[in-house]
Automatic annotation (TrEMBL):
Residues 427-565 form the Glucose-methanol-choline oxidoreductase C-terminal domain. It comes from Collybiopsis luxurians FD-317 M1. This is Pyranose dehydrogenase (acceptor). Keywords: FAD, Flavoprotein, Signal. FAD binds at V92. Belongs to the GMC oxidoreductase family.
Length: 577
């Protein structure tokens, strides 16, 4: 049952209280309540009262996201020519899965094998996670029911999971050109039938968390679908923003503390309320929310906490550290075509027409998120020889290039565009999150650390040069007219300092931050949670969300977050249920 007011909740002690009804939190809530004897309360800071138009229509996910995100203050970024940047997060039931770009990318097999190695838990390896990938994914035909033969490998997909995944349901005018260029060029531009097989390198058809009806599949629409949310043992309280977890005495934990109580507020000026969990509190408030709650609660670097007047209960210096995001640059080209997505956003009559089509049929240009392809590349060995290799292995990319059949974001008033975005998906840079006040509802301070490692800026330069190499394919002659904006004077042979200036003026977040409450081996002297995602040195508290990634996967982060949540739910069930 979904509640808006604490006073309406039934007077009972829940077995588990999950903080955050986002991507991971809803998976855990769903799986734990499969057992009718287990009761779960989810506390979600956001609501559900967001315009369904903008939540459901795939095309708008990246355009209107700013309206729904909790724009945390970030410190000015020295690496980005002193610009401030925002880290976007979903602030609504479903969390970031309700507002994200819906790309479904698992990363490479090596990414997970590295997790297994650093945690000394083989359960996190690619092979051992396959059942959890399958429990999450429900492969569906694309909205336009086109023939998908050769566009994906069915043997690496699951038809039986909860969260819908499909290929693009609308073919775009540039699709044939994208793959013609691949044929013309060969080499690193090889066609990859399925980048989700564990070997992502090359060019493939994009897979997205979109249903056959052309709708967004978020953790709210899938894991909290009506058949699940009606369970008597599953309650969700909206507009409930947790401030702290509160300690009690523990005889079994090395810190002497257990955390079974969550303090929260429904109205930031209103009273602080409390709920208890008889078994565990699970933090699933995301890469910003979870470490923020830990720090507010006195769990973090004891020196840093003491300095701002917070009583340190558990000295875990890794809380908030290791923040890893993937910097991205959207490179814009003016093109000789009016069959791009730009006019949809500029012409109200056209938008109305395609929206009516979408509403009636679940088809048309609104069932794509901008582009239909994705590609992944290794950086040249000279870079990894010089700076070391931050990737997880030889089959893992350092770079992504995505294609957009139009401008990335709101287009200028004239012109038709092709976007070729470049991102460093295996970055070496690390940022951090901290707090500077005892007010638990003040925004945390975030420094994403983009491009602070020399590898990352060199890799981004290489990504841009790879993009120019790709555009040298004959198929683009006559289609691409010129370059746009700050990018206008950049060439493949621009000197490094010119490229660096462009990159530092243009790069931003790909919205994939992870790692601020990272898992590590039981005997490691760093890390925040153990391989079972229990907060180290305390009793009764786990973190299950994207903050536990020890390293970012070399791709977008929702699929791995779902996989973490599926396995974590099984670990919790094994411990208790
Ligand atoms: C705009 C955007 C675009 C993206 N595009 C893609 C993409 O195309 N493909 C991809 O794979 N990944 C994408 N991502 C990243 C991906 O969606 C996230 O990595 C993933 O969803 C994170 O899941 P999570 O469970 O860690 O956190 P979230 O899903 O963000 O869930 C956290 C939840 O906790 C709630 N919360 C936070 N603080 C509190 C508190 N104090 N008390 C109570 N509740 C709280 C939030 O409201 C939220 O519901 C994108 C993300 C964004 C924001």
């Amino acid at each position: 049952v979904v509640y808006n007011n604490f006073s309406d909740l039934p007077p009972k002690i829940y077995d588990f209280v999950i903080v955050g009804g986002g991507t991971a939190g809803n998976v855990v809530a769903n799986r734990l309540t499969e057992n009718p004897k287990t009761s779960v309360l989810v506390l979600e800071a956001g609501g559900t009262n967001i315009d369904a138009f903008q939540l459901d229509v795939p095309f708008f996910s990246d355009i209107f996201k700013f309206q729904y995100d909790w724009n945390f203050t970030t410190t000015v970024q020295p690496g980005l020519n002193n610009r401030s940047t925002f880290l976007l997060r979903g602030f609504v039931l479903g969390g970031s899965s309700s507002v994200n770009g819906m790309f479904y990318t698992r990363g490479s097999a090596d990414d997970y094998d590295r997790w297994a190695k650093v945690t000394k838990d083989d359960g996190w390896s690619w092979d051992n996670l396959q059942p959890f990938i399958a429990k999450n994914e429900k492969w569906e035909p694309p909205a336009d029911r086109h023939n998908t033969m050769g566009q994906f490998n069915p043997s690496v997909h699951s038809l039986t999971g909860v969260n819908a995944v499909s290929l693009s349901g609308f073919s775009q005018s540039i699709d044939p050109m994208i793959f013609k260029a691949v044929d013309e060029l060969g080499g690193i531009f090889n066609f990859n039938e399925d980048y989700n097989s564990g070997n992502p390198l090359g060019f493939g058809w994009l897979q997205s968390t979109i249903s056959t009806e052309g709708r967004r599949s978020s953790s709210a629409t899938s894991y909290l679908a009506p058949k699940y949310i009606k369970r008597k043992n599953l309650d969700v309280l909206l507009h409930a923003r947790a401030s702290r977890v509160l300690p009690s005495v523990s005889k079994s934990s090395s810190s002497g503390y257990a955390f079974h109580t969550v303090e929260f507020a429904q109205d930031l000026d209103g009273p602080l309320l409390q709920v208890n969990a008889s078994k565990e509190v699970i933090l699933s408030a995301g890469v910003i929310g979870s470490p923020h709650i830990l720090l507010n609660s006195g769990i973090g670097d004891s020196d840093e906490l003491s300095k701002i007047g917070i009583k340190s209960l558990v000295d875990l210096p890794s809380v908030g550290k290791n923040l890893t995001d993937q910097p991205v640059v959207a490179n814009e080209f003016l093109v000789n075509s009016n069959r791009t997505t730009d006019d949809i956003l500029r012409n109200a009559t056209l938008l109305n027409k395609v929206y009516t089509e979408f509403n009636k049929t679940g088809m048309g240009p609104l069932v794509v998120t901008g582009g239909n392809q994705i590609s992944f590349f290794r950086a040249n060995e000279s870079l990894t020889d010089k700076f070391g290799d931050p990737s997880s292995g030889r089959n893992s990319p350092h770079l992504e290039m995505f294609t957009g059949n139009g401008f990335f974001g709101i287009p200028p008033s004239t012109g038709h565009f092709l976007t070729l975005g470049t991102a460093v998906v295996s970055p070496a840079s690390r940022g951090f999150l901290t707090i500077n006040t005892t007010d638990p509802f003040a925004n945390p301070l975030i420094n994403p650390g983009y491009l602070t490692s020399p590898f990352d800026i060199a890799a981004m330069r290489e990504g841009i040069r790879i993009m120019f190499q790709y555009l040298s394919a004959p198929v683009w002659d006559g289609y691409v007219l010129s370059q746009f904006g700050d990018f206008a004077n950049i060439t493949a042979t621009s000197p490094d300092d010119v490229l660096d200036e462009y990159i530092r003026n243009s790069a931003g977040s790909s919205a994939h931050p992870v790692g601020t409450a990272a898992m590590s081996a039981n005997d490691a002297d760093y890390g925040v949670v153990d391989p079972d995602l229990r907060v180290k040195r305390v009793e009764g508290l786990r973190v299950i969300d994207s903050s536990v990634f020890p390293f970012v996967t070399s791709a977008h982060t929702q699929a791995p977050t779902y996989v973490i949540a599926e396995r974590a739910a099984a670990l919790v069930r094994a411990a208790w249920v």
